[in-house]
C-alpha cells in the first residue's frame, strides 16, 4: 500500500490525500505522530521516502525544469527531555512564483522568519495532483 500525502485544508479537522489525480477524503481515525524522523518505523520511513520522491518528481514536472525549493524538517529538540508530543513534519518553500520569476522576501517575512505565499494551498495541491508521476526527463 502506497503512502498518502496529506494536504491540510480549513478546517484543520478535514484532510485529503493525493491518490493519482483524484482527491478522496481520508479516514477519520487519529493519525500517529512522531517527534523525529528517527522515530518512524521501517514501513513508515519507506512510505515517507516514497511520498517525498513522488512529490519532488511532480514539482519538477510542474514547469518541466528542476524545481528549486527549501525543505525544512521540523523535529523535536535533542536536549534529552521528553518531547513525545512534538509532531515531526516537513515544509516546502519554493523561491519561484513561476518559471524564471524569483519570489523576493518582504520585510515581514525576513523579520518574522516566515515564508509567505500569496497562493491558495488547495490550488497548488491540485496542480501537484495533476502533474505526471513520471519525471519529465524520463519520458
Q: How do the helices and strands line up, and which of them pair or pack?
A:
Blueprint: E1 6-8, E2 15-19, E3 22-25, H1 42-63, E4 73-74, E5 89-90, E6 96-98, E7 101-102, H2 107-112, H3 121-130
Antiparallel strand pairs: 1-2, 2-3, 4-5, 6-7
Brief digest:
This protein has a single domain (6-130), classed as 2-Layer Sandwich (HIT family, subunit A), CATH 3.30.428. The protein is 27% helix and 15% strand.
Which CATH C-level class is it?
Alpha Beta
DSSP, total strands: 7
- SS class: alpha+beta
User: CATH superfamily, please?
Assistant: HIT-like
User: Could you please say which CATH topology applies here?
Assistant: HIT family, subunit A
Helical segment tally? 3
Based on CA inertia axes, which overall geometry fits?
A: globular
Number of domains: 1
* Average pLDDT figure: 78
Tell me which CATH architecture applies here. Answer: 2-Layer Sandwich
Query: Helix coverage percent of residues?
Result: 25-40%
> Which blocks of ≥5 consecutive residues have pLDDT under 50?
1-26
Radius of gyration of CA atoms, rounded to a whole number: 16 Å
Q: How far from one another are the termini?
A: 25 Å
Largest sheet: 3 strands, antiparallel
SSE series: EEEHEEEEHH
In the sheet with the most strands, the strands line up as 1-2-3
Strand fraction band?
A: 15-25%
